[in-house]
């Protein structure tokens, strides 16, 4: 059943245009990136966003070994929070919680009060 939506999404991905960011990263073709931004945004004024993309691309190229850098001590709190979010729900899964049995749900305790 899941194969049909997956096939539709996969075929649809073939027809998606490149993003302005990927055009700048792969080909450094800022003119095509500007045209793509204008098409997507529907306005001619995209210079500020284009300049931001160019600056971010040049900054990312100066970063050597980004996957090695993320393991450094400086970034450990963020990594720890990311993994903790996945671990904590597993520690307190529903299978570990006690649930009342059918007898406990249907049992009615009758309390006899002393007569006054």
UniProtKB/TrEMBL annotation:
<dbReference type="InterPro" id="IPR045262">
    <property type="entry name" value="STP/PLT_plant"/>
</dbReference>
<feature type="signal peptide">
    <location>
        <begin position="1"/>
        <end position="22"/>
    </location>
</feature>
<dbReference type="GO" id="GO:0015144">
    <property type="term" value="F:carbohydrate transmembrane transporter activity"/>
</dbReference>
<keyword id="KW-0472">Membrane</keyword>
<keyword id="KW-1133">Transmembrane helix</keyword>
<comment type="similarity">
    <text>Belongs to the major facilitator superfamily. Sugar transporter (TC 2.A.1.1) family.</text>
</comment>
<keyword id="KW-0732">Signal</keyword>
<dbReference type="GO" id="GO:0016020">
    <property type="term" value="C:membrane"/>
</dbReference>
<keyword id="KW-0812">Transmembrane</keyword>
<keyword id="KW-0813">Transport</keyword>
<dbReference type="Pfam" id="PF00083">
    <property type="entry name" value="Sugar_tr"/>
</dbReference>
<protein>
    <submittedName>
        <fullName>Uncharacterized protein</fullName>
    </submittedName>
</protein>
<dbReference type="InterPro" id="IPR005828">
    <property type="entry name" value="MFS_sugar_transport-like"/>
</dbReference>
């Amino acid at each position: 059943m899941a194969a049909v939506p997956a096939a539709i999404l996969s075929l649809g991905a073939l027809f998606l245009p490149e993003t302005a960011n990927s055009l700048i990263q792969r080909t450094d073709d800022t003119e095509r990136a500007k045209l793509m931004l204008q098409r997507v945004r529907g306005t001619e004024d995209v210079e500020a966003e284009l300049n931001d993309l160019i600056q971010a691309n040049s900054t990312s190229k100066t970063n050597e070994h980004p996957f090695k850098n993320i393991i450094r001590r400086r970034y450990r709190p963020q990594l720890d929070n990311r993994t903790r979010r996945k671990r904590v729900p597993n520690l307190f899964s529903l299978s570990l919680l006690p649930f009342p049995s059918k007898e406990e749900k249907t049992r009615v305790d009758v309390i006899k009060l002393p007569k006054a």
